[in-house]
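Q: Convert this sequence to structure tokens.
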Amino acid sequence: MKLANLIMERRISINLQAKTKDEAVVELLGLIRNEGVQLDFEAILRSIREREEIENTSYGHGFAFPHARTDAVSELYILIGVSKQGLEGKTADGTPLHVVCLLLTPSTIAKLYLQMLSGLAAFGRVSGTLEKVLDVGRPADVIKLVSDAGLQVDKELMVKDVMRHKVASVTPDNTLKDVANEMFRYRLSALAVVDENNKLLGVIDDRDLIKAALPDYKSLISNLNYSMDVEPFEELLKQEDKIKVSQLYRSDYEVTSPGTRIVEVAAMMIFKDVRKVFVAEDDNLVGVLLRKDIVSMVIRG
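A:
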């Protein structure tokens, strides 16, 4: 099914009067009120605001995707608002917020909600989309833009619906210091290793860095009185600009494709006790799926 088929003209406002994202959400909920639909709007608004407190849904490119799974609704609601002047507030990439896509679904629906969220986010990431949306003259024009993007809603929840598109990575020529800096900057325990063409080569994690400092760690464990001539971490720090990723990274990583069913990858993650699976297409790194994201997005919502 085409994603555009689920969007209704009466639930699109191409001239939001709101000044903030929160005001835009209230204004969009007013579109449902105007239809005469009887809902607990206060409960819905609380759910949306609670979700915003967990994570800011302004994802960049001028788009925001506030959403909530709540028992206050019994069907999927997709509401889109366009602010010609732009909304106040900080955004991830510094681009003013102009388009607010509000999604409401019952608590029991995960698949369609995540696919809509993923699809609209993909629509927003396409270069030139924001300019086209700001230029529309009718709600129908917004639906046509989404339709022209060719986005589909699958029968099952796929990796592409949940995966993170931005993946922190290093190349084999980067140094140990580069790796440590990236891990610290993004609060990560592992990084993808790619070549100059973004081909996925392997993974390097915090365990690999510690092993570089303690190559004889097995001897140390078996003999607590094992004597060292030098302090290993001090020696490692002396070499941090010389040791390359090519000397440390591993090729024993888990990888999947964007079109793989989430249930298959989730089962594999449990069976192999892994927290991270890289996503590749034609051997190129396109995303990463984290176990915690399956919990937060599919189960928690």
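The first strand starts at residue 12 and ends at 13.
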